[in-house]
Design brief:
alpha+beta; Alpha-Beta Plaits; two-stranded antiparallel sheet; 5 helices
């Protein structure tokens, strides 16, 4: 079970399953891009009140299981993750920009769902792991599932 986040006036456990497709659904997630993505997300954790419980890629999209605080809306979390990760991937993996014709890294759309709506963390973690054809887990917080 996730830890409760204790603030001055509230106690929360907000978990989101998010899916971000790469622009044009291009297959851009190789080992180097996946490493940059993981390192960048862990850097985001150290600067913002976001905790990545799981990060996984599946050829042309990424699944995240994220815990955050109520002061961050889903849109703010998505925007933060997309903008910072895209900037770092383009900076550290210049070959990706060619695959995407010099454009954006992520599509404009995304999928986001709260964990509580469809089941507990274990079910969502299992769902994320069983998505797609070539799912690869790149980060996992041990003891959560």
């Amino acid at each position: 079970m996730s830890e409760y986040i204790h603030k001055d006036h509230n106690v929360t456990v907000l978990l989101y399953h998010m899916v971000f497709p790469a622009k044009y659904r291009r297959v851009v997630f190789d080992d180097q891009v996946e490493l940059v993505l993981k390192e960048t997300c862990l850097g985001i954790e150290s600067r913002y009140e976001i905790k990545f419980l799981e990060i996984g890629t599946d050829r042309d999209h990424v699944h995240f299981l994220v815990r955050s605080v109520p002061t961050y809306s889903v849109t703010k979390i998505v925007t933060m993750i997309k903008s910072i990760t895209a900037r770092e991937v383009f900076k550290r993996c210049p070959q990706v920009r060619k695959k995407l014709w010099g454009g954006e890294f992520w599509t404009d759309g995304y999928f986001a769902s709260t964990v509580g709506r469809h089941g507990d963390e274990k079910k969502i973690g299992s769902y994320v792991q069983n998505q797609g054809q070539e799912y690869q887990q790149h980060y996992f917080q041990p003891g959560l599932f």
